[in-house]
Design a protein that fits this description.
Blueprint lengths: L1 H21 L13 H4 L7 E2 L2 E2 L5 H16 L1 H24 L8 H7 L19 H6 L14 H19 L2 H10 L1 H11 L11 H18 L19 E8 L3 E2 L1 H7 L3 H7 L7 E2 L2 E8 L6 H16 L1 E5 L6 H8 L3 H7 L13 E5 L1
Antiparallel strand pairs: 1-2, 3-6, 4-5, 7-8
Helix pairs in contact: 3-10, 4-7, 5-10, 7-8, 8-9, 8-10, 11-12, 11-13
Length: 364
């Protein structure tokens, strides 16, 4: 009796497994995928930004095959790369073309961040193009506790293009410019001087940088012919470009971001997603250009003005004009608020002096 029961269970399991496999679309079944051996047979010629990749060098070929295999092993990640590319590549390509720069540079964003705004590294790099703070600021990005434009796709793309252009001017090679983008121009210059070589494929560099160009080339191969590697996406599979309106607002003091969402007829998360550079839940005093959902910009300002005024009345926002002899401590005591709160509302540091005629925001 027990044997018959076990046999019936085994038969049921086999049928359930076969029916499950039968539901898998043919183009996704394992047997329909190209073999990894055939996938890494790169016939060539191959180039990066018009500069030849020496595939006749077996050491170079091995390094390329390694990166191609590692990327193809993570097929879900590649699918997401391909689907996101339709959202971001058009603007990158347009910006590169405006500066007469090669289109291959767009794959740097794929390798650096998988085209994700909040991607970060242990070394402090952040955003679509993985800028560290010092380099990002050098190329005009605002990076502080409230705004981090490394997460803004448009601002960071312009900065990355400018940086790569300067690196190419310095090294007269797009391959070395990309390597310097990864490890820093000082390191490449020092290695050139110490190794007496001027060819990326002959350099001994940090292991991450030795792999860097080959990762980019592997991405280029897959993006150039996805079906060869078993990725058969339909037009409807690709993510559509993000569309939005831009609005400019000028604020007398810190203002909650949810008011922007309400004035746009949407929710807080969508405003954060459209403006990933905004950190936290508030906007600072001053002028801001904010992305809001498409077709919501026309009525935004009237709605926002009403919501902001109602919020200020609810929280009793007061504009105080500094008088002679005032200090932050005496003002805080006069209005029965804490000193840290007063400084936070007005973005003031502890050692900041205030002057007669200056306007301070106080909430009571």
């Amino acid at each position: 009796m027990l044997k018959r029961l076990l046999l019936l269970c085994l038969i049921a399991l086999c049928f359930s497994r076969s029916s499950a496999f039968a539901e898998i679309p043919k183009d996704l079944a394992p047997e329909s995928l190209p073999s990894l051996v055939s996938a890494v047979r790169v016939a060539g010629p191959l180039d990066f930004c018009g500069e030849p990749v020496p595939l006749d060098n077996f050491e170079v070929r091995e390094r390329l095959e390694k990166e191609l295999l590692l990327i193809l092993w993570n097929r879900p990640q590649v699918i997401l790369w391909l689907k996101r590319a339709s959202r971001y590549f058009p603007y990158i390509e347009k910006t590169l073309a405006q500066h007469n720069m090669p289109e291959d540079l767009k794959y740097i964003a794929v390798v650096e961040s998988a085209m994700l705004p909040h991607a970060g590294s242990p070394k402090g790099a952040m955003g679509y193009w993985q800028f560290i703070k010092s380099t990002g600021r050098n190329y005009g990005l605002t990076i502080d506790r409230d705004i981090d434009e490394r997460r803004n796709f448009f601002a960071s793309t312009k900065a990355a293009v400018a940086y790569l252009q300067d690196l190419h001017t310095l090294f007269a090679s797009w391959t070395l410019a990309a390597a310097a983008y990864n490890v820093g121009e000082d390191r490449i210059q020092n290695e050139k001087a110490s190794q007496k070589v001027d060819n990326y494929y002959e350099f001994y560099l940090p292991l991450e940088t030795q792999r860097y160009i080959f990762k980019i080339m592997a991405a280029k191969l897959i993006f150039s012919n996805p079906s060869r590697y078993g990725f058969h996406l339909q037009e409807e599979d690709y993510y559509p470009p993000v569309t939005f309106d831009r609005v400019k607002i000028t604020l007398p003091g810190r203002t909650p971001l949810y008011l922007v969402a309400q004035a746009s007829g949407t929710y807080f998360k969508q405003i954060k997603d459209l403006n990933p550079e905004i950190r936290g839940h508030e906007l600072l005093k001053g002028s801001h250009i904010i992305a809001v959902p498409k077709n919501s910009g026309e009525k935004f300002h009237s709605r926002f003005a009403d919501l902001a005024e109602k919020w200020r009345q609810e929280y009793k926002m007061h504009i105080y004009i500094v008088r002679r002899g005032d200090s932050l401590t005496t003002i805080a005591e006069r209005f029965h608020v804490t000193l840290p709160a007063l400084m936070a509302w007005n973005d003031l540091s502890p050692n900041r002096h205030i002057y007669p005629g200056e306007k301070l925001v106080i909430y009571q």
